[in-house]
Amino acid sequence: MFHAFFFVPVIVFLVIVAPIWLVLHYVTRWRASRTLSREDERMLVDLWESAKRMELRIQTLEKILDAEAPQWRRPAP
């Protein structure tokens, strides 16, 4: 009798509550992972600024090379 008293609620929990709980847990995790955290947003801004600075440096280097070695853009034979 003692086993039946605990057996039925455990089965009900495993069949009804646990699957719903798991689904809701992972849906919440999935939604949270779709958004960027503040740290991720900051890193994205830093990367964007770094890319802009690198682009300016490349343009400057190309201008210097165009002035000093105009043939640098020609493909090698």
From TrEMBL:
Record keywords: Membrane, Transmembrane, Transmembrane helix
GO BP annotation list: phage shock; regulation of DNA-templated transcription
Transmembrane region(s): 6-28
Protein name: Envelope stress response membrane protein PspB
Source superkingdom: Bacteria
Pfam families listed in its UniProt record: PspB
Record-linked InterPro entries: Phageshock_PspB (IPR009554)
